[in-house]
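LOG
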Amino acid sequence: MGARSAIRDAIVQVYERRLARALVGADIPRHVGVIMDGNRRWARAIGLEDVAHGHRRGADKIVDLLGWCDDAGVSVVTLFMLSTDNLSRPQPELHALMQIIEDVAVDLSRPGRRWQVRAMGAPEVLPPETVAVLKQAEEDTRDRPGATVNLAVGYGGRQEIADAVRSLLAEHAERGTSLEDLVQALEVEHIAEHLYTRGQPDPDLVIRTSGEQRLSGFLLWQTANTEFHFTDVYWPDFRRVDFLRALRDYSARHRRFGS
């Protein structure tokens, strides 16, 4: 069994190096979104009753992913960590998940890391202590030179659009703009300027693990022209070779931007 595993690992390493060479000079996405799915199923597949072990193992994978993104030249990474729908999960699981998310934010913001952490979502649906940890991570990493890492926590795509419209209306109300004038002047980019990701490029590539092929409300506005890569691998088992496959598929596509 050990010999077979060693041979398999050697084959994967050779394939991984081949993929990496093939990507030299290829079109690389500036912004990658990741729907990190399959933590609970991974835990159950190996016989663990406490699915928090799956979430913890998935959290441990994040630094690896960000390192791969750095190596590839990706400048923005958005991680879908907790949707508003997930808030209906059993309380013990939700409590453990919040602690894991806080630990991730602390880890990404510790000295020696290069990434700029940004929280995106509806803070009012989260525990105050989680909101405080996310805000502190943002503050601690504000001036770092590396990639921007968006942590989508308490996030819902429809909620984001509603919040953007609400923010837009409030801004124009302060200016004294009449509703009629706003209706006449409103353009798509005006809403985009009030999204959680304002100032960032839209995602070029979204990766979803675990075999599911849907967005689940992830970046609904921003993904109008995004390429998607779906893999059957559960998130805790996601490897560099899987990431490179996603980049290879992306680089091979002719992006038509809706045309």
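LOG (cont.) second protein
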Amino acid sequence: MIICENTRANAISKQDEDIWREFCSQNEYFKSPLLSPDFYHQVANVRDDAYVAIYRENSKPIAFLAHHKRPNDFARPIGAPFSDYSALICAPDCKLRIQEALKLAGIKKFQAIGFIDPYNLCDEFYGEEDDAHGMDLLSDEPAHSTSKKHKKNVNRLRRHMEENIGPEHFIFDDRNQEHFDEMVALKREQTLRTGVHDFLGPIWVQKLMKNLFEAPRDGLHGSLLTMMAGDKPIAWQFGPRLGDRMHPWIFTYLPQYAQYSPGQIYLMDCADALKEKGIAFNDLSTGTQSYKSTFCNKHFKVKHGTIFADGTIKKPLTGKIGNLIGRFSRRFDQIACLELETSDRIKGAFFAIKSAGKRIKA
């Protein structure tokens, strides 16, 4: 008989955490820092609705589901919307179906983000398929598949940048507080300019980013990679690192240097800088397919959508109207993930509607 314990961070035993880590190590798709107990603890430090469902059979853990328990038996992946991946973490021989897991945890529906199901425990989930991307830096295949013409163009842009500003180089795990603050300020300004919700604005998010940036380097921590031109920081990538895996959340650059396409230069050159510092996989996740498919050599399928404990199947809408409804639904769900107070959600919804034109133009 399988039982479930909805457990808070301070009640998880070291033995259970070790088993959780062992399950993650047994499957390539579970190795993301975002699926680790370490990430769960970081989020639990800034959110009081963070739980992990621990499933036991004969007193031994067989699966883990980290989540935010919301009202009306609704749950989201831990750290949403920064949880680019979600999964029922278990061993390869696990037979626990995701619907049964939700029932045992008292969850009626689970809003999956980037759902990974390598052991086929959720056949009934008809979520929206998406492509996740990453740079496998240990692969024999090049980290990017840019054409000769594309490479030539990026090389030209880099040369002009270096001539006008200074030689390009990277600062790995940049601990400069001014660089970090400048990156955050630029990204927040960009969201306002393009009509995107300020995902770095909520207090819990600010605390999470700060805690990760300052975390000890022997465990999960936030790593800032800064691209310099001479003594001038030009572009930044920031996100959690655990072991030899990076998962950047934020990328931005100084808009006054847009003429050099610093984003393309960065993606072309960062692989060598990361590999030199022991990174084996730089996980760029989903979204913005046009450049990720070019600059990544690893691709795999994930799903977004709602998983119902009672087996209800909610197929994604299709066609132009369906796609439009789907975009608005995802937009409002992201606001609900970020803003914990009703008044802030209403403000976010009004801003999203008012800024729709800006997003289309951007």
